[in-house]
Write a structure and sequence with these properties.
3 helices, two-stranded antiparallel ribbon, alpha+beta
Amino acid sequence: MNIYDTKVVKCSKCGKSIGEIEYDAVVTLPKCGYCANPIPEGDDKALYVISKLIKSKDDDVYNNPDKKLSAVGH
């Protein structure tokens, strides 16, 4: 096997070169890292941030019981 037994794999969405594979290998709809994007965007990301803020606020109440009493109104 030499360098001529490979072919370039390109992203099926944007056409960017991803890498090289053996010439007789078959790849179906390859995607680059930008097009695959495993990190959710938009609404999913907003819900993640909100849940983190709520969790940090709850942790703050549990770590400081005085804040819990003032939040209840005693």
